[in-house]
Amino acid sequence: MRRQLADVGCKLHEVEADGNCLFRALADQLYGDQHRHKDVRGKIVDYLEQHRDDFEPFMEDEEKFDKYCERMCEDGTWGGNQELYAAARLFQVYVVVHQDQPSARIMLIECDRLKPTRIAHVAYHGEDHYDSVRSLRDPIDPDSLPVSIELNCEGFRPEDLAKVREFVRFLGEFSQSRLRLPMRLAPEQRVVPSIVDGEVDQLAGTLGEQLQLSTAAGKTLSKREQRQLKKAEKASLDDSSRRRNNRHALGSERE
């Protein structure tokens, strides 16, 4: 994680691992003081309760919303995605989550303002632990707000990452489906059900645009996913070339 952060000009600012780590990391980002975690926790839980309709549908079925909020009020209770989303909206900040996951090293959680009051950076790594993230040039003076971190996070919203993963999965399935089709089928029949010829090239182009993510943030796909993507793209191009040749041959025969 330290090397990953250094690649984008950042460093870990460790907080205590006492169950309050998410709130400590947010407190450091918001106030420059991790010891204000109780204040941050209380405000976030109040926000959850006040916006019940927005958060309750995403709670786990085995725990009632009221019970969840009651438990989250307790010191040492681990926070997670619900609390990060609540924090972004409550404090009107963007939250950038740095993760040690090859397929999603950065996740951006937005608030409902075009210009947030600030951008909070936290790291999620190890055994379900959160730390604060500071700029490499941040002297980290006591009780001082973090130095602003300039990092292009375009394309790293949760929905963007989900689209990329889904499309890589689709291309992999498309490539495998091509190889399993009976050879007696005419080339123009060798398509995945519900996907017409023209859509394959269009979708491949769309993925190419989606993958033009921030180079500063590093690669978001694992080496295995990159190999799978290249293989699927080559298969798509080969298939398109064969279709063009077949159409040309049919046209010549008719003449």
Automatic annotation (TrEMBL):
<dbReference type="Pfam" id="PF02338">
    <property type="entry name" value="OTU"/>
</dbReference>
<protein>
    <recommendedName>
        <fullName>OTU domain-containing protein</fullName>
    </recommendedName>
</protein>
<feature type="domain" description="OTU">
    <location>
        <begin position="10"/>
        <end position="136"/>
    </location>
</feature>
<feature type="region of interest" description="Disordered">
    <location>
        <begin position="218"/>
        <end position="255"/>
    </location>
</feature>
<dbReference type="GO" id="GO:0004843">
    <property type="term" value="F:cysteine-type deubiquitinase activity"/>
</dbReference>
<dbReference type="InterPro" id="IPR003323">
    <property type="entry name" value="OTU_dom"/>
</dbReference>
<feature type="compositionally biased region" description="Basic and acidic residues">
    <location>
        <begin position="222"/>
        <end position="242"/>
    </location>
</feature>
<dbReference type="GO" id="GO:0016579">
    <property type="term" value="P:protein deubiquitination"/>
</dbReference>
<dbReference type="InterPro" id="IPR038765">
    <property type="entry name" value="Papain-like_cys_pep_sf"/>
</dbReference>
<dbReference type="InterPro" id="IPR050704">
    <property type="entry name" value="Peptidase_C85-like"/>
</dbReference>
